[in-house]
Design brief:
This protein has about 160 residues and is an alpha+beta fold. It contains 5 helices and 6 strands. Strands 1, 2, 3, 4, 5 and 6 form a 6-stranded antiparallel β-sheet that branches.
Amino acid sequence: MDDYKNTKEGRIAGQKYADLLQMERPEPSVKHPRMSLGSRAKIFSPFAALRGFDDELAEEGAQTLRVARAELSEEEKASLSARLAALRRGMTITVRYFVPDLLCPADPPVGRYKTVTGAVQALDPVRKTLRLALDSPHTGPGVEKEKAAVILYENIEELT
């Protein structure tokens, strides 16, 4: 395409707006200053239109990526047992544990590893379970105030 300024429409527009084309960009008023680039970026940043959709996609992807359960050494088991014995109700901890795939039983078990952070609600030495009140990143109306995770001792790989 030819240069727009050299077309018939371009010459007409140039004559019609000749006084405006030579002007500089106006300075913003004191009442309405220019927005910073950081603030402008926030306007155009993506937002979560469907709450929890990203979590569901991540979980769906994790279900397709299954791994075999790693077996802990005797030293690691003893260290983990000592850390479990030192836990008290209300302590905030991070647990990495194995979630077996119940739809596809195998030997050794396959599944995925999950890491959660939360406050210890209960330790059940009979059932050998740890109950955590999970920290929720979402707040507001319609969001569960507190989720809980019940983790079998045998599935715990790391405890911090």
